[in-house]
Fold this protein.
Amino acid sequence: MDYKNILLHVEAPVGTITINRPDKLNALNAAVMTELSGALREMEADDTVRVIVLTGAGEKAFVAGADIAELAKMKPFSGRKDSSFGQEILFQIEQLAKPVVAAINGYALGGGCELALACDVRFASEKAKIGLPEVTLGIIPGYGGTQRLGRIVGKGRAMELVLSGEPIDAAEAYRIGLVNKVAPPAELAKTVREWAEKLAARGPLALRLAKAAVQKSLEVDLRDGCELESAYFGMLASTADMREGMTAFLEKRKPVYKGE
Ligand code: COA
């Protein structure tokens, strides 16, 4: 795929996808979303990539939202279609077989916040501002924000953020559990990389099924979720990775996982 709005960088075992429209604070238009979907597929298919990092180009923004110039032209049916289209790409992140980390290097507003919410964990720069300002534009979040935010921070906090439309800073986002870690701006990339490398040393099949199981935990009841967990647990018992992990422990050495 030919990318105009996205940068792809693989430094094994970490693959980084950078939304690259800094002059528009990396706002998401249809072209960016299509390219993002292609980039995610490419990173998923690359066996040297164990963990994916998603970030924004420039000093100011992760993603400052869906592109308001595009949004301004929407009609009821096209609005619904655009919302569903974006939602599918965020589901693609959740369903991806590798962990996806959001490195929130600045504004994460509207669609940018929603994009981060679909990632598995969120690391933020101290100068990040995160929020869902859609109601200030006369709309509501359309990339799953009304549904995912409450699942992460609880219904009360989600209501506060969605109804007020006011952004919060990184410290508050950390306090309410919206982001997992906060780092000084100059150290964000390094902090994310170190964490990603730590994950990359784990068994990739275990990471894949652990992610899928935790994803499902918010969608199914406890008994069905536990049944799924047992099935995944059993499935992993058939892998060379499991044998390697346990043998390495017993031999007091570091495991070398092949994803088999
Ligand atoms: N869609 C389209 N363009 C956007 C954008 C968005 N969501 N967010 C920023 N931009 C553009 C601006 O229009 C401006 O373009 P221009 O230089 O051609 O005029 C450029 O990015 C820089 O933004 P600017 O507003 O000048 O930067 P700022 O530092 O003064 O303010 C923000 C930063 C994030 C507070 C402000 O850009 C903003 O409020 N953006 C919209 C956020 C939003 O409502 N997102 C949700 C959309 S549903």
In short: The chain has a mean pLDDT of 97. The beta strands are 6-11, 14-19, 51-56, 61-63, 100-104, 107-109, 121-125, 129-131, 168-169, 181-183. Residues 110 and 132 are 4 Å apart (CA to CA). DSSP finds eleven helices and ten strands in the chain.
